[in-house]
Amino acid sequence: MSGDKRTVLTTGANSGIGLATVVHLAGLGFHSVGSVRSESKGADVAKAAASSGTSVDTILLDVTDAERCAAVIEELRPWAVVNNAGYSGIGAIEDTTDEEARRQLETMVVAPMRLARLALPHMRESGGGRVVNVSSIYGLTTTPLSGWYQACKHALEAASDALRLEVVRDRVRVVLIEPGGVKTGIWEELDRDVARHGRSDYEVGYERARTLLTMFSGVMGQPAGVARTIGKALTARSPRARYLVGPDARAIALAQPLIPTGIRDRITRMVVGL
Question: Number of folded domains in the chain?
């Protein structure tokens, strides 16, 4: 299938996976629209698209603003929505306040399913559509010190599975993208997140996480690889329910059911320093 100028809205398009996706989809022939949270970020997207020889439209949207979400979907009536907006939110469960947890859940669970819900009537009216939710390998596994981020990804996976079954009869396909480590700005937030928690009983674990991130940053995948997978999910006649992206994601998904929980916990605690 080709893009055929069908409208695709990608959230969180100002950098990383979102930026790579809007540019790639424009190159595939879609009417690619990226949501940004400021005019300056919109200019960055336009510049990146122009440098690649494509054209991308941008629209101002805070995905946690329900009224604005409704207005944007009504204006665009998209054939597909790529829910990518999110952030890392590093922090031990004990260090994370209710407000911080709710903000993560609102951004990475409630907002994407809201956008899908709002777009569904337009998709049915046009004879079908796609909902592509950018999850993570953390939607399939869990490690310490980012439990609420992982809770969001687990919840997104469950909600996406339910939605996929509910709307397939209407020729709407729901797809999960599950990347492993990807070089994006989300990791640059680690220092800020750790500093926000101040003195913590998990300080050693945070420092170990920072060291591990530095060690593995050189072998992380690129946003373009995830963007190409999203393009496949949108152009395939019969897309898969899930797409693992990256050798690390595939290895973790394969090993997860084979390693007993007690052994996995012991190894993880030793690595992280807990």
Answer: 1
Distance CA 75, CA 60 (A): 12
Pair of tokens at residue 92: 């031990």
User: DSSP E strands: which ranges in the chain?
Assistant: 7-10, 31-36, 57-60, 80-83, 129-134, 172-179, 242-245
CATH code of the domain covering residue 145: 3.40.50.720
Dihedral angle over CA of 59, 65, 67, 69, nearest 10: 40
3-class DSSP assignment, residue 37:
coil
Does residue 1 form part of some domain? no
Return the sign of the alpha-carbon dihedral for residues 42, 46, 51, 53.
Answer: positive
Which residue from 67, 64, 55, 70 is spatially nearest to 23, judged by alpha carbons?
55
Nearest-CA neighbor of 272 among 186, 227, 209?
A: 209
The tokens describing 204, both together, are: 């050693």
- Write the pLDDT tens digit of every residue in 26-83: 999 999 999 999 999 999 999 999 999 999 999 999 999 999 999 999 999 999 999 9
Question: In this structure, what token pair is assigned to residue 163?
Answer: 């939605």
Render 161-182 in DSSP notation, one character per residue: HHHHHHHGGGTEEEEEEEE-SB
Could you tell me which residues are beta bridge partners of residue 33? 9, 57
pTM over 0.90, yes/no = yes
